[in-house]
Design a protein that fits this description.
Layout (H helix, E strand, L loop, with lengths): L2 E11 L12 E6 L7 E2 L10 E12 L6 E8 L6 E9 L1 H4 L5 E9 L5 E12 L12 E3 L6 H59 L1
Parallel strand pairs: 7-9
Antiparallel strand pairs: 1-4, 1-8, 2-3, 2-5, 5-6, 7-8
Length: about 210
Amino acid sequence: MTHTLKVTVHEANHLEDVERFGKNDPYAQVSLNLKDKFIKTKTVKNAGKEAAWNQTLDLVNYNPQEHKELYVDILDEETGFDEPIAFVTIPLHQVLASPGHVTRARFNLRTVSGKEKGEILLTIAVLAPGQTEAAHPQSEVRGIVEESSEHQAHIKSLKRKESAGDAGTAALLIGAALGAKALHDASKDKAKVEREAQEKAKAENREY
């Protein structure tokens, strides 16, 4: 029987700055399976290294017997492919073991390279079928995280897509610049030919 996993994404602190110009525009996304679609929060524009969302996301097909981890990503919104900032894999046994099956905790984040940097504050609650309200967490705790090679591979694949997108955009810009230069040069050559023809015609007229 499926339950609902309610994930309230409160805030993230001390994030890695992935923007070359300006500040991070971060959003968070969560999933119970790396192969499934992630559910996203809103994007916080120009948040930089500190972001607050205070948004609740419902994962409605949670099965405690099947889903053992919660996968959380933080990405920087871009025009093309979004750039990953951090991620964390959260074992859900700590939520099931908490009073009322709800926990409010800070979890350490990892960067794309696997380095620990930053943290995210979440409230995670398990709602049984027919239950509409979660219990109130007793206090904030330090959350348990686990290392997941599959999750890191997922994050690295997002990074490769973003890097390839940047390279493609750069190639288009270079191509456009070269094309513009070629047109400019062709225009200059045409004008030069026309001037030489005019000068030749004037010289021939003077001879007669």
